[in-house]
Structure formats: C-alpha cells, structure tokens
C-alpha cells in the first residue's frame, strides 16, 4: 500500500467516470474545470448511444422528411418525386462520423482527462476495475466515482423473438438498406419517430402495433391523436390495442411474421422493437456498493447515490429522466457538487441541486407534426393536488401559422396552478413547434406569473403569437 491508501498497481485520480456518452463527458468537463483530475472509462464508442445510435442519427433521418412535409404544405412548392434515400443515409453516416470515435476521444483527452478503453466495474468504495484490450487496469478515485452508463433497449419476453433477430434503435438508426415492409412494436417517441422516418425513406408497408389505446402516453392525449392521424394519412397502418404473442422467422434472411392477440398476423422484412429502455448497469458491480444490481441507482438531488456517499449516478441510470439534455443537466450539477465537496466549499447552493426533473423535463418528438412539452400534463397536475385550469387553442388559427401553410394543423395547451397563477405545463403539437419549447421551459421553470407573462410581447406574424392567444383564452 502507498501512504495515501492506494494499492501500488492502482492509477489514482480525483474522480473516475464510468461512461463516455454526453452525460459522462459533461461530468468530466465540469470536474476538470473545477481543478480536479479525472479518468473516463468507456467500453463502446466515446460519445455514447446518443451520438451514434439515437438522438443524432435519428434526427438526421427525420430532417429530410420534415422538410419534404413543409414543402408539400406550401402551394407551388410541391415535392416532385421520392426522397433520395441513399443521399439521406450518406448524410446520416457523416453526422455519426462513420461510427469512428477518434474525434470524441481526442476531445476528452484535450480537457485534459485520461481516457480508458474497456468495461468498467466497481470493485468496492472508490475503486473501478477496467477490463480492456490489454488486460485489467485498476483505478482509484480520491473523491468520487460517477456512473454514467446510460440505458439499453428493453427486450420483451415473446416466443420466437430472439431467433427473429429484431431491430432496436441501434439497427434502425444505422440502417443501410431500408426494408420495404416494416413492423414497429411500440407507441412511444422512438417508435413514432423511426416509423415515420423509415416509411418516408422506402418502408412503404409500415405497420405499428401499439399495446395501448393511444400514442405517446406521457404527453397530453391530443398530441398523440394528431400524430396518429398524420401517420395514417401518410400510409402507416397504426393498430391500437394489439399485443404481440409470437414472432417467427423460419429462414435467417427471410420474412418475419408477427402474430397478435386478436388472431391477426403481419408479415414484414424487419421488425423494430421500441418498447422502452432499462438502466445499463448489469454486471458493473453495484452490489459491491450495497446497491441493487439491476438499477436504477437511487440518488438525491445532488446525484449522490443513496447508501454510498462516494458514488454518483447521472443520466438514464438513475431513472429520473431518460433524455440526453436532462442527463447533461444532471451532469453539470453532479460535476460541480463533487468539486465543491472536494475542496470543502458550500455544496448547498441552488445550482448544485437538480430541481428541473421535479417540474417536468422538456421534450421534443421530431415527428410530423412535431410534439413538444414541458412540465406537468393536466392529469399529472391534478394527481399532484394542484388547483388546475387548462386552456387550449387551435394553432392553425394563429396568423403566423397560417402563413407557414394554409392547412397548418396544430394545437397548444397550457396547464395552470390557479392558486399561484403560474404555468405548470405547456404542450405544443404542430409543424415546427420545437422552437417554441424553450420559451415555455423558461416560463415553467421560472414560475413566471401570468400577469408578467402577459407583457412578454410575441412578434407578428410568427407562430409565437400562440402565447397571446392562450393568455387571451385564459381571460387576460
């Protein structure tokens, strides 16, 4: 043992971060900025799921579809001919750096931080063992270990599923040959986005099998209804109330048949599973910290794990919010609070606690129409005991929206706490509404009083005039 308590063959850092996705990278950046040393461990690609198989490539596939829809809504600019799928896929490959993470590794090393390639596993308090290509490397942290390993697709237990080799988001976003017939199982954001993207790129027979009675169950019902209508109008077969009972693919490269509980079946070239995600923590040694091996890792508002004061968990692994931007927000909180505690500085400042998750995370679903929301839905607000009033408005009746397209279809809703006269949640559904979300996020997070919000004047003629119409509908 060395005088500091480390074993002679250990590499010692102030902080060890396990996971080099955007969340882990943000922790490392904040820790280095605060004057601490850090090692970042990654088994797969530095940059994480978001950069290579989720947020970035999916939006690269969705953007041409969005533009095509926008053009077709404007008289005189109708799109002539199909979208050039090979060109779209080539652009997608550029956005993910052709699955080459050398640039991302260089970014980490330039922080500066030490990048360690391999699978990290907790080996007791403040210790991480990394099984890499050159053997096992032992790391010790002086102050904290941070778990930022993200999440993996949730694979349901369905007869014949493993043999059918279904797609997850990874195969869907990295597709090189778009199947002509596609079955999508699920009705959440990934299912909706990828069904629409792949359908526009050549999956002409796309069927969505949704177990529940609507899409996007975590947002206001009207948003899912508008999206379902758009999907069906484009030719996608959306079937509600269908549970998959069996999947068969007799030949490895042959068609796959999906059977549902109503006795029907659908034949396709590929099946995409989009039925949820689970924390990617299996086999990383949580039991050595006295925690449940399968997660999620329970944390307090500073991202410190319950029962293990040296361990922190950020992003999908803590189960608070499975959104990249919220994981990055948690990472900033986490990195800064670790620095404060390391130097004995006050660690109870407001910026050193996660409060955004409690109010409701902002989210955009990049379908056509786009769906975006922040804060609580009306049903959530009522369940939480607030005195609630909800106001809705037809976005197509706003002058700025009408100028974008004569058949602009959209809707907006705000949920209010009547006792305090502040917003609890806002939802927009319509073409291009994502640009409205941050204003709503500021209003919700800042608890801006309605009487003050009334004086935030929207520019004419823009879609942001929806704020004026909603407030007028409320009675201001």
UniProtKB/TrEMBL annotation:
Pfam families: Pyr_redox_2, Pyr_redox_dim. Residues 362-467 form the Pyridine nucleotide-disulphide oxidoreductase dimerisation domain. Its EC number is 1.-.-.-. Residues 13-326 form the FAD/NAD(P)-binding domain. It is an enzyme of class 1 (oxidoreductase). InterPro entries: FAD/NAD-bd_sf (IPR036188), FAD/NAD-binding_dom (IPR023753), FAD/NAD-linked_Rdtase_dimer_sf (IPR016156), Pyr_nuc-diS_OxRdtase (IPR001100), Pyr_nucl-diS_OxRdtase_dimer (IPR004099). One of its GO terms (molecular function) is oxidoreductase activity. Keywords: FAD, Flavoprotein, Oxidoreductase. Its cofactor is FAD. SUPFAM superfamilies: FAD/NAD(P)-binding domain, FAD/NAD-linked reductases, dimerisation (C-terminal) domain. Belongs to the class-I pyridine nucleotide-disulfide oxidoreductase family. This is Dihydrolipoyl dehydrogenase family protein. It comes from Actinoallomurus acaciae.
């Amino acid at each position: 043992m060395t005088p500091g308590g480390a074993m002679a063959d250990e590499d010692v850092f102030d902080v060890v971060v396990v996971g080099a996705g955007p969340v882990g990278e943000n922790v490392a950046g904040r820790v280095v900025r605060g004057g601490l040393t850090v090692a970042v461990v990654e088994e797969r690609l530095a940059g994480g799921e978001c950069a290579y198989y989720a947020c970035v490539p999916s939006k690269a596939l969705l953007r041409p579809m969005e533009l095509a829809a926008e053009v077709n809504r404007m008289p005189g600019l109708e799109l002539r001919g199909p979208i050039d799928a090979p060109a779209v896929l080539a652009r997608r490959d550029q956005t993910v750096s052709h699955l080459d993470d050398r640039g991302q590794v260089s970014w980490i090393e330039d922080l500066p931080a030490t990048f360690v390639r391999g699978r990290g596993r907790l080996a007791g308090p403040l210790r991480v063992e990394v099984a890499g290509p050159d053997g096992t490397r032992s790391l010790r942290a002086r102050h904290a270990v941070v778990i930022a390993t993200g999440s993996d697709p949730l694979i349901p237990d369905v007869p014949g599923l493993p043999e059918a080799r279904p797609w997850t988001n990874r195969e869907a976003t990295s597709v090189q040959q778009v199947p002509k017939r596609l079955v999508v199982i699920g009705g959440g954001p990934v299912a909706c986005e990828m069904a629409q993207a792949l359908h526009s790129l050549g999956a002409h027979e796309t069927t969505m099998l949704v177990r529940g009675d609507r899409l996007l169950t975590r947002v206001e019902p009207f948003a899912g209804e508008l999206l379902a209508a758009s999907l069906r109008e484009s030719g996608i077969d959306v079937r509600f109330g269908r549970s998959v009972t069996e999947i068969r693919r007799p030949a490895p490269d042959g068609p796959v048949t999906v059977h549902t509980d109503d006795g029907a079946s659908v034949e396709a070239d590929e099946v995409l599973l989009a039925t949820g995600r689970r924390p990617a923590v299996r086999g990383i040694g949580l039991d050595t910290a006295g925690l449940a091996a399968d997660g999620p890792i329970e944390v307090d508002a500073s991202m410190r794990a319950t029962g293990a004061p040296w361990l922190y968990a950020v992003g999908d692994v803590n189960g608070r919010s499975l959104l990249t931007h919220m994981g990055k927000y948690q990472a900033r909180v986490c990195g800064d609070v670790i620095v404060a505690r390391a130097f004995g500085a006050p660690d109870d400042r407001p910026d050193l606690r996660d409060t955004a998750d409690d109010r409701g995370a902002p989210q955009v679903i990049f379908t056509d129409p786009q769906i975006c929301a922040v804060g609580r839905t009306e049903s959530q607000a009522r369940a939480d005991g607030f005195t609630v009033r909800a106001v809705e408005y037809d976005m197509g009746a706003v002058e700025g929206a009408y100028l974008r397209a004569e058949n602009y279809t959209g809707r907006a809703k705000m949920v209010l706490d009547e006792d305090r006269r502040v917003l609890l949640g806002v939802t927009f559904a319509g073409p291009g509404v994502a640009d409205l979300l941050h204003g709503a996020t500021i209003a919700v997070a800042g608890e801006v009083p309605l009487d003050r919000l009334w004086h935030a004047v929207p520019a004419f003629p823009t879609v942001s005039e929806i704020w004026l119409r909603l407030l007028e509908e409320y009675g201001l």
